[in-house]
Amino acid sequence: MSNENKKFNFGAVISSIQESFDKNERRKKQIGLGNSLESASNDPKDYVVLPDWFKKHFGIMGLPFGKFIQISGKPDAGKTSLSLLAIKNAQDQGHAVIYVETEGKTGPEDLISKGIDPDQIITISTAITEEMFESVHTSLDAFFDKYPKDKLLLVIDSYGNTTSMRDAELKMTEKAAKVGGASQSNRLGLSAIKAKQLNNHIAVLVVNYSYANIGSVGETNAGGRALEFFCSLVIQASRKAWYEKTIGGVKVRAGADVLWKVTKNHFAKSLVDEKGSPLLLPKEAVLRISSKGFESLT
User: Which pLDDT tens digit goes with each residue over 111-169?
Assistant: First the structure.
């Protein structure tokens, strides 16, 4: 439609609105025309950039600042391997890292073996939901107070392993009749992180677990609908088989072949190929995880 046939001169209106925000550039960027709505960025500075296989399967360069990404599933499916890869890449790209470890399974030797400098990470070790969020928010505030222009990766491993203080205080006979204790804490904690993303460059990777639905088919991720709502990309991970090698005539376990299914991808709808046509992404990725890192098998 030509400009002559358009009833409203919204360009002038938007300029007036933006001027009302004076020098607040963040607020000015919130106002625009329909064609300014957010699409998946192709600029590496907007991500903790991951290897090419990540973009091949999920359409984006890595973990975007300002967004939540979730990988959920059963043990030995590559969830923590992804978190350590993300931490290594974040460090290599000059970004800060806050690592929440709730299961007590990752130590300094695990970080060092992946090329990660443990002295360049803020670690939070707790399995209490409220303590986790409080420590995360305190750490974010302290970091950005000192380094306001820097970028940060927040990794929570694993989210589903946390327990609310409210749950600990309820009697067993009361638990069946009350809503899960962590649900309200989850929504409040996640909302506060999202609010901090408005003013600071924070990428969030949530490692989670899934469990079978009782009385129905399928699986559910821990954390409830609040976590699903906040995540722009959700990956459901499972192990297909152990990857074995024969060394000296003996078979040894050398890694795992995993299946990652995409259950939510808000970025995909804005992706186009070189000709401008919608880019159709695969729903599943088969990956091999070994001492060599991640290798795409599809």
Answer: 999 999 999 999 999 988 889 999 999 999 999 999 999 999 999 998 877 777 666 55
Same domain for 27 and 56? no
**CATH code, domain carrying 134:** 3.40.50.300
pTM summary value: 0.84
> What are the helix (H) ranges across the chain?
10-20, 25-28, 52-58, 79-92, 108-113, 129-146, 165-169, 172-175, 182-197, 224-230
187-215 pLDDT per residue, tens: 888 999 999 999 999 999 999 987 655 44
For residue 43, tell me if it sits in a domain: no
HEC secondary structure over 41-76 = CCCHHHEEECCHHHHHHHCCCEEECCCEEEEEECCC
Range of the domain at 259: 48-296
Q: What count of other Cβ atoms lies within 10 Å of the Cβ of residue 281?
A: 17
